[in-house]
Amino acid sequence: LEDQDKWQMSFVMPSKYGANLPLPKDPSVRIKEVPKKVVAVVAFSGFVTDEDVKRRELKLRDALKGDRQFRVKEGASVEVAQYNPPFTLPFTRRNEIALEVERKEE
């Protein structure tokens, strides 16, 4: 797989814990501060598949084309958030896809 086709896993922690995070024991795990950004999000339930992500991403991009205030930021790639353990029933799962957006110039 090319680098852009590989999945990355992230755990998001509130900034107030930044100084107190334990150091990773695995050298492939990194702690990285990510700058603030504005994203447009679509929430959904069920299991997440690649096809579902692509379909929902296209739908979100299409919806944002008609938005008066925001547009998808150039080069933005879709981010997938899954909030439940694997054994959670599909209809109770909480998932989101997000695209970074920027305010349209007036």
Automatic annotation (TrEMBL):
Q: SUPFAM superfamilies annotated for this entry?
A: Probable bacterial effector-binding domain (SSF55136)
Q: Which residues cross the membrane?
A: none
- Per its UniProt record, what InterPro entries does this chain match? Reg_factor_effector_dom_sf, SOUL_heme-bd
Q: What domain of life does the native source organism fall in?
A: Eukaryota
Q: Which residues form a coiled coil?
A: none
In Pfam terms, one family for this protein is SOUL
The record's annotation in PANTHER family points to: HEME-BINDING PROTEIN-RELATED, OS02G0533200 PROTEIN
| Family indicated by similarity | Belongs to the HEBP family.
Protein name, as recorded: SOUL heme-binding protein
Q: Can you name the source organism?
A: Citrus sinensis (Sweet orange)
